C-alpha cells in the first residue's frame, strides 16, 4: 500500500536524520569528475590543502552534524584535530557509501569513512574495504555496540540509537495510552492501527531495512514464529513511503491520516529541545513486560589503501573523545558511543535506552549481511501478493 501526501495538520519539528536520506562520502578533487560521472549526483565540499598540510579525505553522509556536506558544525567540530595535526580535510557526500567504497576498491579515494551502519558495516568489513583498528578509546564504549557493528574492528562505533514508532498525542489518547506499550501483533490484529502506521520501503530506504530487521528478529527470537505471518496480515493495510524523509513529512503534515510513523526514539528529545515537548510520542516493542528494539549503530573506519593510516588511527581515537562525543546528541540526535559523556536534559523526554533489549544481540553482523538480500526479496514477494 503506497502512501501519498495531503496538506493539513500541524507539523512537529522536522530534522534530517543522520545518514537516513543518503549515505555519503568524500573524494579528492582529481577523481571527482570521474566519480560523478560513474555514480551520479554528489554533495561535496572541497578544501584545497594549503602547502605544508596533510590532505585527509573523509567519506561521509551529507547530514553529518546537520546542514550540507561539510557543514559548519562539522568543520567546527573537526577544527581542533586539523590544527593539532596540520591537516586539511576534504568532504564529498554521494548517495551510497558502501557501493562507492566497493567501486573504488582498487583505487580508493578516501582515507576515512564515517557513517557505515549495522547493515552496511558487516559487508564493508567482510569485503576487506577497511583496515582493522582497535582504539584504546574503546575502553569507554560498550562491547555490545562493537559486536553489533563489526567485531573485527574494521568499523568503530561513534553513535547509536533505536528505531521507534512515533505517534501523535491524539492517537495516544484514542488508544488510552496503549500504543506506548504496543507490539507487532497489535497491528496484525487491528486494521485501524495497521492503516495508521506509515513505514518506509525496505528495498529503497535504510530505515525501512532496519524496520524489517526489527520485525524479523522480534518474531524469530522472541515469539519464535514465522516472521512472514505479520506481513501477510498487514500488507494490505500498512501504507509505505519511499524513504524516511517523505514518511516523516507525511506524519508531520497529516497526523490524522498517518498518526504513526517508523522513525527514531530520540525524536521526542528533538521535539523537547526545539520547544515542542510532548508533541511526539515514541514506542519500541513491549512483550511480557520487556521492551525490545532495533539498535542503529554508526561507525567510522580507515579505508584500506589509505596513505595516512596512522593519522586515521589518531583521528578515530580523537573522535571517540569527550569533545566530539559531547556534540553528538544535539547535532546527530543519537547517543554518543562514549558512555562517559553526559546527555543533555532534552534526552529525558526519550524512552530510557537502558531499558530496551537490543534485538541486534540475537543475531550477528555476518548473519545480517548474509540474510538481508533474501529478506528483501521475500518482503517484496509478500508485498506483491498481499499488499
Q: What's the helix count? A: 16
Low-confidence stretches: 4-41
Number of strands: 15
CATH topology of the largest domain: D-Maltodextrin-Binding Protein, domain 2
| Number of structural domains | 2
Output the CATH class name of the largest domain. Alpha Beta
Quote the average pLDDT. Answer: 88
Instruction: Kindly report the name of the CATH homologous superfamily of the largest domain.
Output: Periplasmic binding protein-like II
**Share of residues in strands:** 15-25%
CATH architecture of the largest domain: 3-Layer(aba) Sandwich
Radius of gyration: 21 Å
Terminal residue distance: 6 Å
The proportion of residues forming helix, as a percent range, comes to 25-40%
Structural class: alpha/beta
The main pleated sheet reads as:
12 strands, mixed
From the spread of the alpha carbons, the general shape counts as globular
Give a brief rundown of this model.
By secondary structure, the protein is an alpha/beta fold.
